[in-house]
């Protein structure tokens, strides 16, 4: 392909992304729609069906897709990535729909482990967009951003004739756009926790109710035994209500690994449960795909969750787990003398896992021959209706030397055709959030320091109201200025990610170049400039990590590896396919 042709494709792709970004709800309109949020959510499925019909996809067409549907608060993306990797390793042609994207919107729609190309995205985008445009019933009759991408993904998977489509739920489950699928082969529910409470409710029971909405009659759902008791009880109630067989997956260590080591492509002990869930989902799907047999609901047998049985892993499953990649989750990437530790933790549980991973992993990345100082930096931002204190409270023990709070904007002048343009929040609101997060951080670090000095400190986590009082009553904190450093808790705010990285790199990193768009509040600390190595923990938001990666790894070189699809069946495959005629692997 010549350079001009490549430039034409880039231009066409940017035009498509700009049109897609126009479907985002701007901040003012989003605030207005929140008043009618309940009715809008309830119409999500019917709206998705209507738009699918307009682009030539009926519910009957969707029934032809062989779907694995996964919901959950955290770990659902990792579970899907493990699932996709295993099935691709078996030689199946895979489709994988996920959210959010990190660098390019094409990452959300993958075929055979790779984001669809710019050409494929652009061609399919305009096909869907133009059909919806000419069939509008009113001026506002166009799907919102996520709904459009869901319609596009399903259309692409049908057109690409994938063997299996792995769908990650966006938010919740019951009313999520992906729940338009009526007949998935199997469903999975990963760890349940508090998130999106303004949409899903403020109790774990309410959140679980929504997540369990993907359950279907006579279609098994697999979940984790580490769920909160109340969550597992609600899952069981919903399973009975929907007449859905519910199974709890076994520990990853209980599977038959043979002489092969237990090794995963994703770091962190939290991935063990996700990997076990993926093994059960793939094993059931393969059994169904090869024999057509399924597990039907039995009122007496399925009166409560049953334990799924571990099984002996074949080479494809072991390799699939080892080679699975899911960027932005427990990921380490070196960029000159900066080492980035990136984890998109955005719930209390996931942040605890992130801190555990970072404190164990960071010392392993200090070069043995290094005699200079290692300087630790936190880059943080949280979005949506999340309380930043519930995340930041776990981070003071990480021995952070400097904290950077930035918006998720890559630059302050984002192009309308950028994959990372976000119209759902104003820049002023983003900056106010950063100021509040910095103030909370300073308060938490000071409190942590006092506790280390055996001063009297309450053991109970402070509520947001208590934190606000602390900010008013603690010496020097009531008038914190984001343009000045707090001498005892070094921290700084930046309006965009690129400025933060330019300031952090101190001009020493050839991969991070350019001019600061906004003058920094103060110069880089001398200790940072002289450090032999800088370890950077990036957490709180996957959107933040996406912005970081768009600068240090714009091509996402860390993405999933490719393999040749439709390979001949291995001996293990043949044995398993004969075995499945007489048993149901993955089920009791």
From TrEMBL:
Binding locations of ATP: 329, 343
Function: Catalyzes conversion of folates to polyglutamate derivatives allowing concentration of folate compounds in the cell and the intracellular retention of these cofactors, which are important substrates for most of the folate-dependent enzymes that are involved in one-carbon transfer reactions involved in purine, pyrimidine and amino acid synthesis.
SUPFAM superfamilies hit by this protein: MurD-like peptide ligases, catalytic domain, MurD-like peptide ligases, peptide-binding domain
Source species, domain of life: Eukaryota
Cell compartment(s), UniProt: Cytoplasm; Mitochondrion inner membrane; Mitochondrion matrix
Reaction it catalyzes: (6S)-5,6,7,8-tetrahydrofolyl-(gamma-L-Glu)(n) + L-glutamate + ATP = (6S)-5,6,7,8-tetrahydrofolyl-(gamma-L-Glu)(n+1) + ADP + phosphate + H(+)
Enzyme Commission no: 6.3.2.17
Protein known as: Folylpolyglutamate synthase
Cofactor: a monovalent cation
Entry similarity comment: Belongs to the folylpolyglutamate synthase family.
Residue segments, region Disordered: 452-484
Amino acids binding Mg(2+): 99, 168, 196
Cofactor binding: number and manner: A monovalent cation.
UniProt pathway: Cofactor biosynthesis; tetrahydrofolylpolyglutamate biosynthesis
GO BP terms in the entry: one-carbon metabolic process
InterPro entries: Folylpolyglutamate_synth (IPR001645), Folylpolyglutamate_synth_CS (IPR018109), Folylpolyglutamate_synth_euk (IPR023600), Mur-like_cat_sf (IPR036565), Mur_ligase_C_dom_sf (IPR036615)
Alphabetical keyword list: ATP-binding, Cytoplasm, Ligase, Magnesium, Membrane, Metal-binding, Mitochondrion, Mitochondrion inner membrane, Nucleotide-binding, One-carbon metabolism
MF (Gene Ontology): ATP binding; metal ion binding; tetrahydrofolylpolyglutamate synthase activity
